[in-house]
Amino acid sequence: MIILGIETSCDETAAAVCKDGTVLSSVVASQEDHARYGGVVPEIASRSHERLLLETVNEALSRSSLKKNDLDGIAVTRGPGLMGALLTGVSFTHGLALGLNIPSIGLNHMEAHIFANFIAYPELQFPFLCLLVSGGHTQIWRVEELGEYELMGETRDDAAGEAFDKGARILGLGYPGGVEIEKAAQDGNPDKVAFPRALFNTDVVEFSFSGLKTSLLRHVEMKGGTLPRSELSDVAASYQYAIVDVLLSKLSLAIDKTQIKTALIGGGVAANKLLRKKAEQDFPDSTILYPELALCTDNAAMIAFLGEIYLKRGNQTDHTHSVIPNLRLSS
Ligand code: KG4
Ligand code: ZN
To answer: Poorest-confidence range of 27-31, 82-86, 197-201, 279-283?
Structure first.
């Protein structure tokens, strides 16, 4: 089965082609225009998707050496995400699927982040845990099988990616914040500043990052509003370490509570090298998996891949399926 995947939920315009579980091509056109605003501007995102989508889809088809008429179906992100941004991808999908007379399916972006791990590890067995960490989500899921998800806990306020993005803004660094803080933290001393770790030694699988962000803001204010270069790497390293420490301590708690020894990490923050390295060190008795970097941040390969699984099972929405900006995986 040959599936075209389309992803436009936030600021990446992405298209990919998947055939029988193998990703043939994956193209991501990152929108540069947001960087100077220090975050994603929804109206700019929608307009950029409109401008970039057709050429991105054509590029994905061309790199797969296939033509539109070879497609058996189209999968698109229908939520969660920015309303206008989602609408560009879903409307495009409706038009193309109707024109080609093939089925289309609207998918949950977060579910696709989880299943991106199956691209790297096709032999993965259920059940497993998944730490989902992105710009808008920080959650731990217990995954029994495709479509059966139990939320073990999530953040009470900011998401981990948001903590990176807001932290980068406070430090005068660029966007995306996670990438910038990771760069600035290189060679820094993670023990230099004792940033708070909320809910750390408690028995709840929940997160809170807003106090950490405020603590960084106070630290920078105390230094007069900007950090000298000599201190930036230590502060960035300490801030990054505090986020990673909390994420992994809660993953450890979830493993203890469920005794499920396989845990995946998915979403943009899963690209963080410290998180990946520390996860490998901290869990000698468990199997911790995460996808390659390009499959952590937003991409359409994960959409095409999950779309094929659903379309093969006969699931498909009709051509009127629409966007759900606050779509949840399960209640
Ligand atoms: O999954 P994603 O690409 O988009 C959403 O679905 O939100 O995640 C974006 C988030 C941003 O907050 C970004 O700062 C963070 O992922 N991120 C990182 C890294 N690369 C992206 N955070 C930490 N380290 C990274 N290397
Ligand atoms: Zn994402």
So the answer is: 27-31
What does the pLDDT average to over 228-240?
Answer: 95
Q: What's the burial of 178, exposed, middle or buried (CB within 10 Å: 0-12/13-18/19+)?
A: buried
Query: Which of 8, 134, 246 is the best mutation target for the ligand 1 pocket, counting ligand atoms within 8 Å of the beta carbon and taking the most?
Result: 134
Ligand 1 close to Cβ of residue 269 (< 6 A): yes
Residue with the smallest CA separation from ligand 1 atom 26 is 272
- Ligand closest to CA 134: 1
pLDDT surpasses 70 at 318: no
pLDDT (tens digit per residue) in 73-92: 999 999 999 999 999 999 99
Closest by CA to 60, choosing from 97, 100, 18, is 18
Ligand with minimal distance to 302 CA:
2
CA separation for the pair 251, 205 (Å, rounded): 8
Q: Residue 268 C-alpha to ligand 1 middle, in angstroms? A: 3
All structural domains of the chain, each given as residue ranges with its CATH number in brackets, are 2-113+297-312 (3.30.420.40), 125-290 (3.30.420.40)
Closest ligand to the CA of 165: 1
Are β-strands 138-145 and 148-154 bridged in parallel, bridged antiparallel, or unpaired?
antiparallel
Ligand 1 lined by 81 (C-beta under 6 Å): no
For the residues 40-48, what does the mean pLDDT come to? Answer: 92
**Ligand 1 lined by 56 (C-beta under 6 Å):** no
Work out the angle between the directed axes of helices 160-170 and 177-185 (0-180°, nearest 10): 70
